[in-house]
């Protein structure tokens, strides 16, 4: 296991298992019929992984995903188990490293789309709207302000890039990639999940501005996979800080993006190391999101 100087888990290596596939955040091990997902403390921004991590970030992602899997119990998902005591014997000896950050999940076919749902106008959607009056290529009414709630939540897919930047595409283009009927079913599924989650978040004093889902297929059925509604995949705004026309402070990695935007960096690897104060503040925001949404702390 590789940790940085702050104790953030950067990489895992489990003897006896094949080398993991390393995503931007997760190390994924093939266990045969299932997969072991390990949420490290790596953090990415602008599709680049930072050289240092955010301590406990992987545990926050795992705790939030488990909360949402349970809350959204009507939505089929890929979870098999999350308790290290239920893991295969060869994994239990690494319990201290895997506890609260590892899941065993079903091995399913991944649908190659990032399924983004937007409820508010922010980020790249705001930039597109300012330029052309559209969001994901769909014409919008005039007069929207920054951070304003959309008249209707929108499904705005993007390509899923292993390396480099994802690209926003239209629903029609998504249909060309995976089939029109499947794209329509994905949109309906993603929007329903978003609306359920946004309603819960609002009761907790949080605005779910937008989020990104990933889906797979099991026996022809679309199921929810990967992380769900975490600060890595979502924009969480405390309601008390929301002001129309401004970018609200976020309980997510927007703090890291904002820091990086102020640097002379072209958003290509290698990414710069995050200073100590940015690491500490980002960790604080992740823990605040966990407590606000679930009522739980570590």
Task: Explain what you see.
There is one protein chain. The mean pLDDT is 95. It is built from eight helices and 18 strands. Helix 5 packs across helix 6. The protein folds into two domains: 106 residues, Phosphorylase Kinase, domain 1; 152 residues, ATP-grasp fold, B domain (D-amino Acid Aminotransferase, Chain A, domain 1, 2-Layer Sandwich). It starts with a strand and ends with a helix. The chain is globular. With 298 residues, the protein is an alpha+beta fold. The longest helix is centred in the middle third of the chain and has 24 residues. 38% of the residues are buried.
List the helices and strands and how they pair.
Blueprint: E1 2-3, E2 9-11, E3 21-22, E4 26-30, E5 34-39, E6 44-45, E7 48-49, H1 57-71, E8 79-81, H2 89-92, H3 95-98, E9 102-106, E10 109-110, E11 113-120, H4 123-132, E12 134-135, E13 138-139, E14 149-155, E15 158-159, H5 171-178, H6 180-203, E16 206-218, E17 221-225, E18 234-238, H7 254-261, H8 276-294
Antiparallel strand pairs: 1-2, 3-4, 4-5, 5-9, 6-7, 8-9, 10-16, 11-14, 11-15, 11-16, 12-13, 16-17, 16-18
Brief descriptors of the model:
Phosphorylase Kinase, domain 1; 8 helices; 2 domains; 7-stranded antiparallel sheet; 298 residues; 26% strand; alpha+beta; 5-stranded antiparallel sheet
Give a concise summary.
The chain is of the alpha+beta class and 298 residues long.
The CATH topology of the largest domain corresponds to D-amino Acid Aminotransferase, Chain A, domain 1
Overall 3D geometry? Answer: globular
The total count of helices amounts to 8
Question: Looking at this structure, what is the CATH superfamily of the largest domain?
Answer: ATP-grasp fold, B domain
CATH architecture of the largest domain: 2-Layer Sandwich
List the helices and strands in order. Answer: EEEEEEEHEHHEEEHEEEEHHEEEHH
- The whole-angstrom Rg is 19 Å
Low-confidence stretches: none
Distance between the termini: 22 Å
Percent of residues in beta strands: 25-35%
- Can you tell me the CATH class of the largest domain? Alpha Beta
Total number of domains: 2
User: What share of residues is helical?
Assistant: 25-40%
Structural class: alpha+beta
Report the count of strand segments. Answer: 18
Q: Mind summarizing the main beta sheet?
A: 7 strands, antiparallel
Query: What is the mean predicted local confidence, pLDDT?
Result: 95
């Amino acid at each position: 296991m590789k940790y940085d100087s702050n104790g953030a888990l950067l990489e895992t290596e489990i003897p006896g298992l094949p080398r993991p596939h390393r995503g931007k955040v997760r190390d994924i091990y093939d266990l045969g019929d299932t997969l072991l997902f390990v949420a490290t403390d790596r953090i990415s921004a602008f599709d680049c992984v930072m050289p240092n991590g955010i301590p406990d970030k992987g545990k926050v992602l795992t705790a939030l995903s488990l909360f949402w899997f349970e809350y959204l119990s009507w939505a089929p998902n890929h979870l098999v188990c999350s308790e290290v005591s239920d893991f295969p014997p060869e994994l239990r000896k690494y319990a201290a490293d895997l506890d609260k950050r590892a899941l065993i999940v079903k091995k399913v076919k991944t649908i190659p789309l990032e399924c983004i749902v937007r409820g508010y106008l922010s980020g790249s959607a705001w930039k597109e709207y300012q330029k052309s009056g559209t969001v994901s290529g769909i014409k919008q009414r005039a007069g929207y302000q920054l951070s304003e709630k959309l008249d209707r939540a929108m499904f705005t897919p993007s390509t899923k890039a292993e390396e480099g930047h994802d690209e926003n595409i239209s629903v029609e283009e998504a249909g060309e990639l995976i089939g029109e009927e499947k794209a329509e079913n994905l949109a309906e599924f993603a929007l329903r999940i978003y609306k359920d989650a946004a309603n819960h978040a609002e009761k907790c004093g949080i605005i779910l501005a937008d989020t990104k889902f990933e889906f797979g297929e099991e026996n022809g059925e679309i199921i929810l996979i990967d992380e769900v509604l975490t600060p890595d995949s979502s924009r969480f705004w405390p309601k008390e800080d929301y002001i129309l026309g401004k970018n609200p402070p976020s309980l997510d990695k927007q703090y890291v993006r904002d820091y990086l935007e102020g640097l002379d960096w072209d958003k290509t690897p290698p990414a710069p190391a995050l200073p100590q104060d940015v690491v500490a503040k980002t960790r604080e925001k992740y823990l605040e999101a966990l407590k606000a949404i679930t009522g739980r702390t570590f």
